[in-house]
Amino acid sequence: MSIAARIDFPDTSNAALHSIEREVDFRPSILDLQTDPVIEEPTIKQRPTETLSEGLILSPLLDVPSSETPFHSSGRAAERTPALDPIDANVPETALTRLPYACIGQLVMNFPRHQSVGSAFAIAPDAIMTVGHNLVEHIKDRRTGARRTETAKAVRFSPGYNGLGHGAKFGTWTADWAMVCIDWVNASDHRYDMAIVHMKRNSSGSLSETIGGHLPLGLYPDYYSQWSLFGYPFIASSNDNPQMRQVNSVGAGADTSWPKDQPVATRSTVFRAMSGGPWFSNFDPKNPDTFRVLGMNTYTRKFVYQYSVYFGDMLRALAEEYKSELARASA
Length: 331
Prior knowledge:
This protein is mostly beta strands.
């Protein structure tokens, strides 16, 4: 049974992404649940962290055999040493041309009635990963309570972007189709808010050839990891000049208010529009072994807890369906 739906973007030119005036209705991509989370010890048995199966989208330079993983499968991050530095700051412009930062970028989406911004990261020569709600929005009318669904018509990705510096140093790529988890598309289920997006090649070649690589995906992360979260925050005073931001935070555990596949939570207020940015565990910019993505900014609760979808069997299935669709599209 399929777990993903294919979405096509009819407007694939860069010009299409500038066809809507930003001042009309320009907003950051964000999901915030105004309910109290239930943060507890995970109730599911933790599996050892591993790298997503061979043949997916792994860079030879970054592939780390699961037997050599530096990640732990149990225990609280606060009890581990050394602790990550308490960072909540913009990434220096000089770092944005190096891995892993060059693989992270700003995402701009045109919807029928508005334009939105978010974050994403490269996971293959011609693919990026982001949250489903960057592509398919479930919108509730504040006055009537009626709900509607809107799908992006055009998507643009700018890796290593710096709004106050070099801008889109590596250029921009436009998306032509994506695979999005059906449980997000049909039911707005936050546990499955993820998508893999295929990018058209531009004059520079493939995405990973231009930026120098792409990021491997990890499965079954430790809920209590020391996380480093990345993305492009939306700040009202400088929304035309977004910069990549890094936030370090100790994992808070699993949200057991969900019956299964609990999202990963961390106590960290993350700015709007970072949705779709990657999470690294025990991140060390000098150690490529820590460049595996084990989560991503998905939604918040009361702007206090930041959540990631759980990178487990559903992500594995989504990746397999993406590979199958890619093979059909290339035939």
